[in-house]
User: What shape does this take?
Amino acid sequence: MTSSYLELVCPAGTPAALRTAIDAGADTVYCGFRDCTNARNYPGLNFDQDEMAEGVAYAHERGRKVLVAINTFPRAGDEKPWHQAVDNAANAGADAVILADLGVLDYATRRHPSLRRHLSVQASAANALSVQFYRDHFDVKRVVLPRVLSVEDVASLIQETGMETEVFAFGSVGPMSEGRCFLSSYITGLSPTSEGACAPASHVAYKKEGGCTKSCLGNVTLNQFGKDEPAAYPTPCKGRYMALDHSSYLFEEPIGLNAIDILPQLKAAGVTALKIEGRQRSRAYVAQVVSAFRKALDGLALGIAPTVANDLKQIAEGGQETFGAYKKGWR
Amino acid sequence: MMRHSFILCFPMPMDHLPAPLSRLALSVIPTHLLQRMIDLLVRRMQQSHPRLFQNLTRLNAAVVRIEPTDLPHSFMLSYGSGAMSVTLVQGSDLPCDACVRGKLASLLDMLEGRIDGDMMFFSRDIDITGDTSAIVGLRNTLDREEINLLDDVASLCGPLAVPARKALGLVSRVAERLQNRLAEMYETRHPAPANTHKSEAANDVLRAEVKTLKKRLAKFEVRQKQREAISS
Assistant: This one.
């Protein structure tokens, strides 16, 4: 199931960001409830039930959609918050829920069969067998693909499965097996996949030492930045570690994914929707990124290659950009 | 914030409280008077942004020091557990849970949702220390609300809010122009020594871009030759 129109799916960490995203040209907005059921469970972020219903109404009045991310994994014997979140999303009139856990998918399929189900990137379904499994067992309509596939990989997966796909267009590079990364929990004791926060703010500290700033998670120093050196998020995957007497970013450099220059290739690959990451970012970020992608997509729909000034570099992590796995230049 | 200053150079309707005017006011008004004005502004904002205050009370109690690096004062923001207050302080030895430092213009841009806090963090334009969850909670809670300080300050004038807003806009434009003129005069008389660090950094970036472009060009040339070979 592919479409010639690329749907722009945008983040909203707050009701104000939802309105900003829609006003800036988002086709669809995704957001989550204010608890551990979504993978951006940070203080002050997310929606309560009333705010969700208001957000859905705001979007629907303007012909746009709202997807609710319920994409963490329930703790054994404590499924209720996740079931409640699915019920609340349905009651709020959400257009779809974005799920990752098998049990939550099963619950949603049985209790709300008419509520559209998308597979979260947290399920890490990166091959045809996996995608078909979720489609066949839970009637999943769309899969959000992990950021480990090249454009050619994406095209062949779509061809093989015939599934609607949503791919990341802007945000983190995310080379890890998403939904299965436990680096942060080794340090904090809190699981990102159940608590909804990788490197929870309660365990992060920045310390000044001389002219440098140290970022620490728990009692582990992750990084040290010189006065004018770009900073990175305080997550273990973006730490700078010593190996063979040399310090380097072993897992991932502080660099942002930006696919705005390869939109024609993604469209040609049969992608249905583009996802902008950043529910934890401000509405200023949402306005800037969504506007840039809207302009590029409108140009693409008219058959014009994206020629918008790509000034998103400064807002990307570390002030740098890459195509990530879409173009595996290291091969 | 060059971008900010540049925008303000134009005679446009002022839709936000400009940093130079705020900086001037916060620097010259006596502390006790300023504190009274802040108390009034907080009370006004409680009326105009009830949801903001409701959301602040949902956070864990914390005291965050907001430290504009270009002002003689700092602001101790106390929130959570049902109470909220802003206290003007001088010096930085009072205990707090967390601290945010940056230029006033950057802090105002963040407060009013014009600029992304993470971007300011990546570029090191703001600095944070202490309890990160207090800062993240505060930042996210403020970003939920569409705040316009110019409107809130003008509304303190009651029925004269509209003319006050216009007057603030006029004064701020004059202050901005004056500041730009002064900056130009200063630059003319004191040609700035080249910021070798930054220009070196810029050169590095340009060198890296040229290197990347050369690589891409080489790849294109190889592909072109392959295509030509195939077609011939």
